[in-house]
Amino acid sequence: MPQSFGSLRIASIPIAQGVASLSPTELPPPGGDVPRVPPAVIPILALIPILLAPILAQPPAPPPVAVPPPPATVPGPPPPQAAPAPAPPALAPSPAPVPQAVPAPVTPPTVAPVPAPPAARPAPVLPPAVSPAAPQVLPAAPAPAPTPATVAAKPAAPVKPPAVLPFAGENLWVWFAGGLLLVGAGIILRRFLAANHQHQADP
Amino acid sequence: MRWPRILSTVLLLAGGALIAFPLIRIGYTAWHVRSIQEAALAAWEQETPPALGGAEGARRHTSKGLILTIPRLGLRRYIPEGANLTQLRRYGAGRITWTALPDRAGIVGIAGHRTTYGAPFFRLSSLEPGDLVLIDYAGKRFSYAVTERRVVTPQRSEVLLGPPGQRGVALVTCTPAYSAAYRLVILGRLREVSEVPSRP
């Protein structure tokens, strides 16, 4: 509705339909003026433990194993285990088999089926050694003794390497990568906050 | 509005610290090893005086270890016995004790750090076949020529055994740089044995 004050006329311009007022005065929510956490922060927060996990739990690579293997003892045991195989029937089974071995020659005809296997096994080994008459006694003592002695002389040559090569480096890239990710997350969060703040400040 | 801002600041600071840590570590360990290496080299040269090369030098030389020289890399390091963590942190490099000594048949295995502790083997990957690797040991100079370069997993320790009877050298370090995922092994074959040249 135009008004006129002398020569001055003031025209009232109608605003667009549906617009109540020109001033964008949106009041803050009634809950208070503390802004809510922007939803974009949540994924960043969720990223933090993921980023820090490889750094905090950095797997220490296998430590170097540079200890030389024992020369004489390591190669010794395996041969004795293999060699005494024939001898044990007469020597090793001291508590239990001895009574079995003794009755075997004493009562050959009656208990033939049961003790026959132990007596039959040493038989092929013993004959070449000394005499067929006393087979079970002789192989027991001499057989185990010479085998370890002869094998122990060899072992110097083969050197078995340790399981891994020495650990001569560090996974420094993990620190770089973790740091870059954290800095990137911080920058993104800062920018988001700045944009949010600017959006709230601008009319 | 306050705590997201604090969080962003913490993130930036933590990230900066994480990025700076490797740089500080590289610098500090290099400084630490450098003084030890200098002292070890000085002690070595004092044991084998410049005028005393060869047999007399070997006779007077009592310390365990050897001197590794790679002319192409401008590298000269005292290599102690043992390539365990302690020795590698102290000297930056060490001889792998289960490998052969230079004056015996077999491969001389020497491990060294790639990036930290003085990074003696940082440019090891730039060695090419034919490059010289010199080892001074017991008054003798063992000259090796690089023959091969291999990248293997840490479990492939048998690469240091070599064919029986062959005399060579193997320089071991981690690869790629700043990672310990694999091992770079530079293999060389003995070319000649001579007296240690007397220093001027």
Description:
The complex is a heterodimer of chains A (203) and B (200). Chain A has 203 residues and is mainly alpha-helical. Chain A has helices at residues 41-56, 78-82, 97-101, 103-106, 116-120, 122-129, 146-153, 172-201, and strands spanning 3-5, 8-10. In chain A, strands 1-2 form a two-stranded antiparallel sheet. Chain B contains three helices and eight strands. Chain B has helices spanning 2-47, 54-60, 85-91, and strands spanning 66-70, 75-79, 93-95, 106-112, 132-137, 140-152, 167-175, 182-195. An eight-stranded mixed β-sheet of chain B has the order 2-1-5-6-8-7-4-3. Chain B starts with a helix and ends in a 5-residue tail after the last strand. The chains are: A mainly alpha (203), B alpha+beta (200). The interface between A and B is large, with 47 and 57 residues.
Give me some keywords for this one.
heterodimer; A: 203 residues; mainly alpha; two-stranded antiparallel sheet; 2 strands; 40% helix; 3% strand; B: 200 residues; alpha+beta; Sortase, Chain: A; eight-stranded mixed beta sheet; 8 strands; 30% helix
CATH homologous superfamily assignment of chain B: Sortase
Overall 3D shape of chain B: elongated
Roughly how much helix do the residues of chain B carry, as a percent range?
25-40%
Oligomer: heterodimer
Sheet-strand content of chain B, in percent, reads 25-35%
Number of DSSP helical runs of chain B: 3
Spatial order of the strands in the main sheet of chain A? 1-2
Strand order of the largest sheet of chain B: 2-1-5-6-8-7-4-3
Q: What's the mean pLDDT score of chain B?
A: 88
Distance between the termini of chain B: 72 Å
Structural class of chain A: mainly alpha
Number of strands of chain A: 2
Binned, the helix content of chain A reads 25-40%
Number of strands of chain B: 8
Gyration radius of chain B (Cα, Å) is: 20 Å
Round the mean pLDDT of chain A to the nearest integer and report it: 55
Q: Low-confidence parts of chain B lasting 5 or more residues at pLDDT below 50?
A: none
Number of domains of chain B: 1
Find the structural class of chain B using helix and strand composition.
Answer: alpha+beta
> Helical element count of chain A?
8
Order of H and E elements of chain B: HHEEHEEEEEE
